[in-house]
Write a structure and sequence with these properties.
This protein folds into 2 domains: about 230 residues, Rhodopsin 7-helix transmembrane proteins (Rhopdopsin 7-helix transmembrane proteins, Up-down Bundle); about 190 residues, Alpha-Beta Plaits. The protein is about 65% helix and about 10% strand. α1 packs antiparallel against α2 and α1 packs parallel to α7. The protein is α+β, with helices and mostly antiparallel strands. It holds the Pfam family GGDEF. One of its GO terms (molecular function) is diguanylate cyclase activity.
């Protein structure tokens, strides 16, 4: 009797700790933890886990004979327990599919197929009301207990499909990704699944409910920690560098400038008519638009050796470091920049140390800025076509060039921002007169 009492106290304290920690994580999730959809799935996972935690605690205390639950109530408890644990597993995997931005997550066929295993699992669980396929109740010595049926293992088979499918997809995505940090995050997730799976199977075969509660708490903890680590240097939604990292990079780039041999250019970019996307299509679609633009900017930045980050809201930053004694890599890769005069001015930039700043800015605008603006909007147009978006996305781009290590990084960003809003004004004026604006 004393042993039952001690086990009851230990289990209750343990479950209370699990619940408090899960609720703390739930309350700590803010809007910068990722896209609205990611946050919804993550929070729903925690709520589902809390329901599972309570039902498992009551079931465990019944097993420990702390109290005797009536037959129908115990069956209801078992159904709630299995539904909540199934939803917890499903929502956790669903969250990571969107968090890792797996290429297939927005495909219609994926959304349909992904809902099949959870639907089949729920049908099996509800069948326990009338049949003994999955589990049923029986009376033993004046007490009621849950007995597992011959098809109980099918529940784990259905979720095995999720694990196999998602692991295969994440490994494939990791191979395709060029960003080292993103690849490491995906590999870490796959490794965690391989650790979690044996724990879940162990708890199933030995019928140890408390092990499963710990494994799901570990999943929440793992997710929370990885989000916190990501937030330090990366924007949760677009997976680009965040504002803090961008400003640190700019300070370093300006400090390393060699006068008359290189320059640093800051490009500030803002999505045109982004408010219209949010107002007309909703914030989830707005998140999708930001990710789409971020992916396009990332590709252009990678092909031109530029640093790129999300500066805030629908504003992005790109930092371009140019060695003046080398052929300009942006102009080199654009076949449309073939004007002999521009080639001549490019040579002048590299060889002349006495060129005025006004002439230099004019040459920079003709040779680099215009080319980069075209590339960015062309890349965004391509991304929109791939996703069959119902709306058009374009960027307004402003810039400021820094040529001295004594320049103030904040002033450079401010000047680039001022130029950006001049371009935004041109965009809106052109839209009013012509109905369309070309960068």
């Amino acid at each position: 009797m004393q042993l039952y009492f001690e086990n009851t106290i230990v289990q209750t304290i343990s479950y209370l700790f699990y619940g408090v920690f899960a609720w703390y994580v739930f309350m700590s999730v803010k809007s910068d933890f990722g896209s609205e959809k990611e946050i919804q799935y993550f929070k729903a996972q925690i709520l589902s886990y809390l329901v599972y935690l309570f039902s498992t605690w009551a079931w465990t205390l019944n097993e420990l004979r702390a109290f005797n639950i009536e037959k129908n109530l115990l069956m209801l408890l078992a159904i709630v327990c299995h539904i909540s644990v199934s939803c917890t597993m499903y929502l956790w995997i669903k969250y990571y599919v969107y968090h890792l931005q797996l290429y297939f997550s927005e495909k219609r066929w994926f959304k349909r197929i992904f809902s099949v295993p959870i639907a089949m699992a729920l049908i099996l669980i509800f069948s326990a009301v009338k049949h003994d396929f999955v589990f049923y109740t029986r009376d033993v010595g004046g007490r009621t207990e849950i007995v597992y049926g011959k098809y109980y293992n099918l529940l784990y088979a259905f979720f095995g499909i999720y694990f196999i499918f998602v692991v295969t997809g994440t490994i494939y995505s990791a191979i395709r990704l060029k960003e080292k940090e993103r690849r490491q995050e995906i590999i870490l997730f796959v490794g965690y699944i391989f650790i979690l799976s044996p724990v879940v199977m162990f708890s199933h075969f030995l019928k140890v409910l408390s092990v499963t509660t710990v494994s799901h708490l570990a999943a929440i903890f793992f997710t929370y920690i990885s989000i916190q680590e990501t937030r330090v240097r990366m924007d949760g939604l677009t997976k680009l560098n965040n504002r803090r990292v961008a400003e640190e990079y700019l300070i370093k780039a300006i400090g390393e400038l060699v006068v008359d041999k290189e320059e640093v250019a800051v490009f500030m970019m803002d999505i045109n008519d982004f408010k219209m996307v949010n107002d007309k299509y909703g914030h989830l679609e707005g998140d999708k638009a930001l990710v789409t633009v971020g992916n396009a900017i990332k590709k252009v930045a990678a092909s031109n050796s530029c640093f790129v980050g999300r500066y805030g809201g629908d504003e992005f930053i790109m930092i371009f470091r140019n060695k003046l004694y080398k052929k300009n890599n942006i102009a080199k890769t654009d076949n449309r920049v073939e004007n002999k005069t521009e080639n001549k001015t490019d040579t002048q930039i590299k060889t002349s140390k006495s060129i005025s700043f006004e002439d230099f800015e004019k040459m920079f605008e003709n040779n680099i800025y215009n080319t980069l603006s075209r590339k960015l909007n062309s890349a965004i147009e391509h991304e929109c076509k791939l996703l069959n978006l119902e709306y058009e996305l374009t960027l307004s781009v402003g810039y400021c060039v820094c040529r001295s290590p004594k320049d103030d990084p904040k002033s450079i960003i401010k000047l680039a921002d001022e130029h950006l809003y001049e371009e935004k004004g041109k965009y809106h004026n052109a839209k009013k007169t012509n109905g369309k604006y070309k960068s």
